[in-house]
Structures are given as structure tokens and as C-alpha cells.
Design brief:
This protein has 123 residues and is mainly alpha-helical. It has helices at residues 26-38, 43-52, 64-70, 77-95, 100-122, and strands at residues 2-5, 12-15. It has 2 domains: 23-75; 77-122. The chain has a two-stranded antiparallel ribbon with strand order 1-2. α4 packs antiparallel against α5. The longest helix has 23 residues, at 100-122. The radius of gyration is 22 Å and the shape is extended.
Amino acid sequence: MQTKTKKRGTKEKLVKKVAKAKKLSQEDYEGKVLELAKKGLTSEKIGEELRGQGIHPKEYDKKISKILGGNDQYINPDLKNVEEKLERIKNHYGKNKQDKGAMRDKDRVFAQLRKLKKYFKKL
């Protein structure tokens, strides 16, 4: 770890050095992506996880979503997030029947999910 001080010397700022990871082969990279997908991560979260490990997805030929799509593991992150949100609201509304705002949100999010499914079916 390296430290830098400001000119006036009042505060110190710590700068982290990220260890640069050794570049993986394309096959190892794809294996790593599939391994993270088995944990239930979306393509966006897989990219974040890889960058955290020092592996930059832009250095490889295939996009993460293409790798997952080729192995039938691709889940559209937009749909997944809205489905999870709907489940949370349904659970809350099931416990709190008097919550009229939750009832309205449940209907609103369900309509949003229906629209997204219709949209992605066209693509």
C-alpha cells in the first residue's frame, strides 16, 4: 500500500494498488463466467465480479451475455430484477393486507413485468 500526503500535511490519503491478474485463456475465461452464472448472478453482476478479481471482460472476444446465451444460461437482468421486486411486494402485501400502497405497487409492477415480457418476446 502506498500513502500520499497533501502539500499542507493535514490529512493523509491512502491509495490502494490493485494487483493485476494474469490474463486467462479464452476457455478459462468462459469457464469462469459459467461458474459465476451457476451461482445465480446476472451478466452485469458477473462483469462486476470479474473486474473485482482483476479480469477485464473487454480483453476477451465474447461478451458475457453471448457466452451465457450459447449455454442456455442467459437470464435477462431487467426481467429478473422486476420479477424479484414483484415477489418482495407480494410477500409484503400478503403479510400486510391493510397496506393499500403495496396493493397498488403490486398491480403496477405486475403490469411493468407484463410489458417487459411482451417487449423482449418481440426481440
